[in-house]
Amino acid sequence: YAMLLSLIFLIVLVAAVVGFVFRHEIKTNFESNLNLALKNYNTTVDQHSEAVDTIQRTLHCCGVQNYSDWEKTEYFAQKGIPQSCCRNQDDCSVEDLRDLSRAKLKVFVDGCFFLVTSTMESKMSVVAGISFGIACFQLIGIILACCLSQYITNNQYEMV
């Protein structure tokens, strides 16, 4: 049992170190995937499109760097900026969303990339604290399992 807990502890430790070392690559990868999701955005049932809509509604943002990123997409040529960018759903018409200058007054102007990364970085201390707490419990479990193993081994010789 102590060996199994030690193996899990080492895997979590390696994952934390790799995540810390490659955090810049994670950001770059997220930005390129968000750009790709905007480029391939459509109204059909698509997980990437739904994720973009959810991010934009939840974080009150639009596009990758700002709302004008939608101008470069195929979706903008057909329908304008998506409804998920609207500040007020009732006050957002299709005509407003097709014109960037009018849309600026109706949609969130901040980009999602900065908001997502800053939200993740602000929550990183909570994640690190919880991970540290779990690691402490694993170490206590490893120590107690070794003590129990030692106790059982010592008592087997005394029973004869």
TrEMBL record:
Where in the cell?
Membrane
Its placement in the membrane is given as:
Multi-pass membrane protein
Question: Which domain of life does the UniProt lineage start with?
Answer: Eukaryota
InterPro entries attached here?
Tetraspanin/Peripherin (IPR018499), Tetraspanin_EC2_sf (IPR008952), TSN6/7_LEL (IPR048232)
* Gene Ontology cellular component list: plasma membrane
Q: Which UniProt keywords apply?
A: Glycoprotein, Membrane, Signal, Transmembrane, Transmembrane helix
Function field:
May be involved in cell proliferation and cell motility.
What is the recorded name of this protein? Answer: Tetraspanin-7
What's the encoding gene here? Answer: Tspan6
